[in-house]
Amino acid sequence: MIAISPRQLEVFAAIVDAGSVRAAAGQLGLSQPAASMALAELERLLGTPLFDRGRQRLRLNERGRALLPRAREIVERLRELGTLAGDAPAGTLAVGASNTVGNYLVGDLLGEFIAAQPQVKVRLRVANSAQVLAGVLDFRLDVGCIEGPLEHAEVERIDWRRDELKVCVRADDPLARRRRLRADDLRGRRWILRETGSATRSLFEEAGRGALGPLDVALELGQSEAIKQAVIAGLGIACLPAVAIGDAIANGRLVALHTPFLALERRLALLVHRTRWRGATLRAFLGSLGKRRESKD
After folding, report:
1. Which protein family is named in the record (predicted)?
2. Quick one: which H or E segment has residue 292?
């Protein structure tokens, strides 16, 4: 039997999460030499490196990716055994959220869980949906929350709630005064869109395919807030999540157009790797959202 210690596995997982030995050592209350030694001993016992090393950066290699979910499961199981209840949430939860969720729905996503489990440290990473899915696949994220239809055979997708996109224009745009629009009214307009990989952009392009024809994309931006400000500045029109433009509509800077010819409703979903062990912390998080989760149509 290989004499691997829980501490070595804990250090390994912490290095993956923190991105460096130094940062992981600080999180665990160890000296950097002690953390380095624990990693070196783990790699010696396994007979293989777990990271590709170059230019003072550690990149998880294939063997490291295979070990990571098992190491986290062992660490979490031992942590639970150490609690009085034997099954209490503890430790760190790594959550990924798409830009829409992370910037506008973070309270709905995390609020109830953080209030109920103050002893758990939550790490939130905000990125586009494709990046969140990638984080779940390589186990850097325990759970992700995305908009749009992204799926993967290795990931379970759990419906959370509905969301809707809206085509919006500046308040003084001629289209803002039109009660009834046709798809042709949007042809030839200059569009400001999210970057490739964004679920918001993917849904809009799918909905507009055929109805709107080729799009004149004047500007690509990585944040809905930046796009909103660009539309207000008169640089073009956009399709944005309804939750992102509510304030600008309320104060009269933007108008949301009525576009029944575009199917712009979507579902926000939780992503969990199918082989990811669902310990007390992850179960508690999913449970906090499950109380308000919408049933599937």
Report:
1. Belongs to the LysR transcriptional regulatory family.
2. none
Enter the tokens of residue 4. 């691997």
Residue pair 266/297 in contact (Cβ under 8 Å)? The answer is: no
Enter the tokens of residue 182.
Answer: 């046709």
pLDDT tens-digit series, residues 208-240: 988 898 999 999 999 999 999 999 999 999 999
Whole-number Å distance between alpha carbons of 169 and 43: 57
What are 294's two structure tokens? Answer: 């919408």
Q: What is the DSSP letter of 83?
A: S
Range list of β-strands (E), the chain? 51-54, 57-60, 92-98, 121-127, 143-147, 155-170, 190-194, 216-221, 237-241, 254-256, 265-273
Q: CA-to-CA distance for 283 and 269, rounded, in angstroms? A: 16
Find the farthest-apart pair of alpha carbons in the chain and give their distance in angstroms, rounded: 75
Cα 218 from chain centroid (whole Å):
27
First to last CA, the chain: 50
Give me the phi and psi of 153, to 5 degrees please: -60, -25
Q: Is pLDDT larger for residue 294 or for residue 152?
A: 152
| Helix or strand run (H / E) with residue 231 | helix 224-232
Q: Is the dihedral of CA 171, 172, 175, 176 positive or negative?
A: positive
DSSP code per residue over 97-155: EEHHHHHHSHHHHHHHHHHH-TTSEEEEEEE-HHHHHHHHHTTS-SEEEEES----TTE
Residue 85 has pLDDT above 70, yes or no: no
Q: What contacts 216, CB < 8 A, 6 or more positions away?
A: 188, 189, 190, 191
**pTM of the entire predicted model:** 0.77
